[in-house]
Design goal:
385 residues; alpha/beta; Rossmann fold; 2 domains; four-stranded antiparallel β-sheet
Length: 385
């Protein structure tokens, strides 16, 4: 984890922040005991066993009884269907998102991450497959009243904060647009108070409500986008690369803000990004996409410590480290799809190699992955003795 992201996890700052590093969090009431016990290891969860973490009071966002909020089954999103330039942006992917968790999505540009998010929120009509939101098939939602209810529960933070804000509207009206549509305010004063409260929640002042988007910096505009998404009190937020256009210090502020909001309001996030270090920092589970396919999905620690798909290994090898010595010796792996050597008879699908750890592979690859996983698990156990 890069130093700029670790700074909020240092024991000296624990009194000021609740800690959240990936899928495991600790409440402020548990900070003193945990800090005293693990201060020399700086609460780096990669150095603690799961039993130690849970003994220290850590719990997962979604708890032991995982409850599905989003269920995606064989989702397909094709463009220019039937033409020579047909694009299979999403090609038959399936996954679940549990209440209260953050699911990170990573992959190269054009692999289908943003399209997946837009399909979940019905900005695109899916070519095929099913998306269930809290048990309801979103494609079956037709009535205006039902669509309003669905749109209130699911919101999106867009990649470009400037392009997603109306330059002709003041911040007051931009944030209050959802409040007006869903008739959440009793009167004009209640409307204004809601906007002021949202601005303060995201670290801005109420004086900012009378300004236009071009008067703000990139980080401030992204905060306005977050405030707009929060205005209707959603259960699920899709964050589509919300930090890609921001400098590192502002990235950390925005991500810490999202984590704080998740703790306070129990919001479920789908976090789409290129920065793998940041995705590991904020996510409970991580999904890896390549050319419209979900090639691997599992707990954040499992994906980073024991990647199984060759493309995942290639992505992880590209993460820069703040250490000149390790950078000189770091080996970067180039992914070549031909390495799989699939035959026409191979059935390719997501297979569970380890608990909650799925890999897109053939039956023969599955057996190899199982063997490699068991070997890695045994090696890790011996190293801990």
């Amino acid at each position: 984890m890069r130093e700029e992201y670790k700074q909020d996890l240092h024991p000296d700052t624990l009194k000021e922040h609740s800690i959240e590093d990936g899928p495991l969090v600790v409440d402020e009431s548990q900070i003193t005991e945990t800090t005293a016990q693990y201060s020399d290891r700086e609460l780096n969860k990669t150095e603690l066993t799961e039993d130690e973490l849970r003994a220290s009071g850590y719990t997962t966002h979604y708890g032991a009884n995982k409850e599905k909020l989003i269920e995606v089954k064989n989702l397909k999103q094709y463009f220019n269907v039937g033409k020579s330039n047909e694009v299979k942006a999403i090609d038959d992917i399936s996954f679940d998102i549990y209440k209260g968790e953050t699911l990170g999505f990573v992959g190269e540009s054009g692999c289908g991450k943003s399209t997946t998010g837009r399909s979940l929120i019905k900005l695109y009509d899916a070519t095929g497959g099913k998306v269930y939101f809290d048990g309801t098939d979103i494609q079956s939602i037709k009535r205006k009243k039902d669509l309003l209810h669905f749109n209130r529960r699911m919101q999106m933070i867009f990649q470009d904060p400037y392009a997603s804000l109306n330059p002709r509207l003041k911040v007051m009206d931009i944030i209050a647009e959802g409040i007006d549509i869903h008739k959440l305010a009793k009167n004009k004063q209640d409307r204004a108070n809601r906007v002021y409260e949202l601005l303060q929640t995201v670290g801005l002042n109420k004086e900012h409500a009378n300004r236009y988007p071009h008067e703000f910096s990139g980080g401030q505009r992204q905060r306005i986008g977050i405030a707009r998404a929060l205005a209707v009190e959603p259960d699920f937020i899709i964050a589509d690369e919300p930090i890609s256009a921001l400098d590192v210090s502002i990235q950390a502020q925005v991500v810490n803000l999202m984590q704080e909001l998740q703790r306070e309001r129990g919001i479920t996030f789908m976090f789409i990004a290129h920065d793998l270090s940041m995705v590991k920092y904020i996510s409970d589970r991580i999904g890896v996409m390549y050319f419209g396919k979900l090639v691997e999905i599992g707990p954040a620690d499992a994906i980073y410590n024991n990647p199984l798909h060759e493309y995942t290994k290639s992505l992880l090898s590209a993460i820069p480290l703040p250490d000149p010595e390790s950078e000189r010796t770091r080996v970067r792996h180039t992914y070549n799809p031909d390495v799989h050597a699939y035959s026409a008879d191979d059935v390719l699908e997501l297979r569970e190699v380890a608990p909650d750890h799925y890999v897109y592979c053939s039956p023969s690859e599955y057996e190899k992955h199982k063997a490699n996983y068991n070997h890695h698990k045994g090696t890790t156990a011996v190293g801990q003795l």
